[in-house]
Amino acid sequence: MSRIPKIDLESHFFTPEYMALLESRTRPPRFEVTDENVRVWLEPSLPDVMLTHSHPLRDTLLDLSAARIEAMDRVGIAIQFLSVSSPGFEQFEPDVQVEHAGKANDALAAFIADHPRRFVGLASLPVSAPQTAADELERCVRELGFKGGNIHSHIGDTYLDDARYFPILERAATLGVPINLHPTLPHGNMLQPYLGYGWAMPGPGLGFGHETAVHAMRIIYSAAFDKLPDLQIILGHLGEGLMHWLYRVDFDFNKPWMAKSHRSQIERKPSDYLRSNFWYTCSGNWLDSALLATIHEVGVERLMFASDYPWEQIEDGADFIEAAPISEDDRRMICHGNAERLFDLNV
Q1: Residue 31 placed within a domain
Q2: 62: containing domain
Q3: Would you call 295 helix, strand, or coil by DSSP?
Q4: pLDDT tens-digit profile of 257-290?
Q5: Is the alpha carbon torsion for 135, 140, 142, 146 positive or negative?
Q6: Of 157, 308, 316, 330, which residue is the catalytic one?
Q7: Which domain CATH number covers 95?
Q8: Active site residue 95
Q9: In a domain, 1, yes or no
């Protein structure tokens, strides 16, 4: 079958040093490799919440080799964006973030240097040291050729709307590169109602998306985009559910009986920012109705392909977008045209 060329905005990896760090720890984030599986604790505020994944998944995350390129070729992925997989560095101690985020970026740059036409890097950032994180983003963009940053949603019990993180957002806007806001397990302050039913509610089934959507809205309400109108954020999973809330997020702007003093102190309606300062990928959400809702609400010009490999089967994402009930022009814009425009790439 002939495949449409694709630019894959979300694919993940581990470095051996990052994995060794996770396996060496006695408190989250940490991994424990057993004979049966890999046990994972993501969130320091919830040290008893654990998930498991398989040895083959761990091996694939660690495999930056020709095997990854072969998987890409099978489904027509011409270029793949790489970022460190969950838990990322945001929940580590600040000094650990500073040391290991830089090492991961250097390792990724070395791999990309061997395959410069096939891979693009998204920088890991030591977010708990904001000025250092801003400088690391600039180093990765200017010296290593990366195309943006990747942040695993909350930082401790804070989000990027906190004024201390403004230097990171400001630097991204100055450099003209987006920040990819990737889901993670919600902080314990938010997670209690999700507990009691295993991993289904707090993880990818519900908690991941809710936490990231809340984070995105906090950035909007903080007036970050009024101060930095060129700042761009990427959301995966077809907008983390926000496409179905665009009317409701504008509630205090739309109701004549709502006192202006109760409105968010921002210049435009929240949905306006979601249409002008956010980009969206289809990563790990293979649902036609969600795809069509995203196109309808924000326009096909802001939607890009992503596989979420290897957490998702790479064939599933490719099959989904190639069979989606959309026009061929829209399909090609999503598969590669929009990413080419945003990142100055050419498949």
Answers
A1: yes
A2: 6-343
A3: helix
A4: 878 787 788 999 999 999 999 999 999 999 999 9
A5: negative
A6: 308
A7: 3.20.20.140
A8: no
A9: no
